Amino acid sequence: MTEQPIFITLAKLQIRRLVDRNDLGNRASIRMLLYVCFLYFCSGNEFFVFAMWRNVDLNVAYSRLQVAFKGFLNGNLGVLIVNLLLAEVAFMVCRVVFLVMNYGVFAPDLNLYSVLMMLKGALVFDVSALLYLNIIYVCLVLLPLHWKERKWFYGVLRWVFVLFNGVGIASNLIDCIYFQYTGRRSTFSVFSEFANETNIPDVILTEGLRYWWLFAVFFGLLVILFRFYRVPKVPFEGAKWRYYVRRCVVLVLFFPCFLYGTRGSLSSGTRPITLSNANSYAENASQASLVLNTPFSIIRTVSHGSYVTPVYMSDTVMERVFSPVVMPENGVEFRQKNVVILIMESFGMEYSGFFNPDYYTGKRRRLTPFLDSLAAKSLCFKYSFANGRKSQDALPSIIASIPMFIEPFVLTDAALNDIGGLVHELKTKGYASGFFHGGENITMGFAAFAKQAGYDAYFGFDEYASDKRYGGRRDWDGKWAVWDEEFLSFFADNLNDFRQPFVATCFTATSHSPFNIPKKYKSVFPEGDFPMYKCLRYSDMSLRRFFEKAERSEWFRNTIFVIVADHTSQSSSSHAEYQTDLGVFAVPILFYTPDGSLKAEKRDDVIMQQIDIMPTLLGIMGYDRPYVAFGCDVLHTPVEETYLVNYNNGLYQFAKGDLFIQFDGTEHKSTYNYRQDSLLRHNIKGNTMQERQMLLQLKAMIQQYMQRMTTNRLLLKTP
């Protein structure tokens, strides 16, 4: 005797109990009748419900219940559910691959409870994504039209099903790689980020050859979807009115289920789930990426080009708690200094021997010897951080003191706002300016932002190629930009032509994926533990040669150099402190003055971040006009008032003093003493005075930020 499905067995027991007790008027009997009616409408099989009241033949009842269940599985709704479950299995396989490829990020905090919670959350977000992805397929399956109940029609739907779910699977697998560089699931902004890139096919081919086995996983999952796809086996028979009644009832019953699945709840007080909701199932912001899936992240951020302003407090209180308007000190005198900002691609703090002297010892060679030597002669900080995880996050932060909240500023509607920033303010003092980046002139939207920020000129690949002193296309790295050595030399040469005083920025590129260096240096700079290591060594050498050339220029000694990374990148598994929600933002920030006007020291008392660069520079030079900045001048701000603010996987993060807190926009999620607990192991969330004050300041910052974004008040209008 074959084993019965468990719910059929339960149904048998229920029928027997009701018959034996002659009790068909209680709630259980009503539920049973509704259940049988549901099977009837879904499958189209006859089941004489009311016969159970008297003279019930249990054998017949069992048989008909089995037939009804099989009919349900073979009917439109049953087939739909089974196929969606098949797609969910594919999504879970992608999540396992995602975990394996990024295991070092998630491993420290994995335990049985966290895995079960993440699995619970993953099902919620997967259901939502699958229903969004398959909305056309669902509608075509359930649409009550009798003429579509043909084999060929469902054969076409097989391809529709595989196509749309294949797109979802592909995006999940691509993020297995891209997550290594961003630290979060891709959102809709990814299409804007690469909209103007001409080398995407080449990059995809290169990464595809490197991760060839992901293609095997992708095509394997497509084959499974196609092979095990179910087609309804119950043909349309009988009167049309019965068909339309049954199908309309099924459609009506499925509609609230669809809403529930896509929204995450049917409660009137609940908005459709968003990325931040993933934090409810994760112990930290990094784990939230494991809960999420990429199709959901993209779909739910399609409309995130506009900011929504929360109201945490009155405007009066907000202004008192935090204002981004910086007022000059009385009696300050402006001192003209050239400003050169070098933004080093992916130069996370963990790669520096100066900041990690105990790590780079013995056989572990230093990756950035020149940067380390420069740091020893500079003002730098033990606790210094980026305000985002992407290059698009870095530019507004460094140049205009605008952090990244929710989405990169340059990819939102607010990117059209008037902005101030370092260049804008220094132009009021007669400064010349230029922005340098060795990529295609439209790459990453850098040229557009440079213009918006007030730079006089943009120097990209077009300008480099037209300079006969250099090799043009021969110096192209084949993927993103001109090699660092040549482009930094180009940068130094052009600075000699600038009218002083000037402010200039150069963004390097060679230390970007796919981590190539010129052939002539392949034997000079070994790959090491990570492919990026050779790029770091090469870019560090290129930086040294830039300074060797620059120091021969007459403008050199009257210049403030700022060296900063745009964001972090691949992390060594042995560097656990750089894998935390705070550590993944740790970047070196150096202020170097050849004339010695700034004392060389590594300060461990203040917190420094990218959005502090602009106000700190203006403070050093004695700037005497008010301006807008979300950071602070760390040299003229009380030590205890310096802070860090950023946004990570749906959580606002705020550090001040010894504490580091996380806030999801509604709820205070966690508190850590990051100075004593560098691995953020111990959540000490409480209700202390310091936590309340930090949370109030963070809320005021968020409210100020969103208000000014939506009302175009990032530039202080002064006479």
Describe how the helices and strands are arranged.
Layout (H helix, E strand, L loop, with lengths): L5 H16 L5 H17 L14 H17 L1 H26 L1 H4 L5 H22 L1 H8 L8 H32 L6 H5 L6 H11 L1 H16 L12 H24 L21 H7 L2 H6 L15 H7 L3 E2 L11 E7 L24 H7 L3 E7 L5 H10 L21 H6 L4 E6 L8 H8 L3 E3 L1 H6 L17 H12 L6 E6 L24 H19 L8 E7 L23 E4 L8 E9 L3 H8 L6 E2 L14 E6 L2 E6 L2 E5 L4 E6 L15 H22 L9
Describe the structure.
It is a single chain. This protein is of the alpha/beta class and 719 residues long. It has three domains: 68 residues; 224 residues, no CATH class; 290 residues, Alkaline Phosphatase, subunit A (3-Layer(aba) Sandwich). The chain has 24 helices and 14 strands. Strand 12 and strand 13 form a beta hairpin. Helix 2 crosses helix 3 and helix 4 crosses helix 6. The longest helix has 32 residues. The N and C termini lie far apart (91 Å). The relative contact order is 0.11.
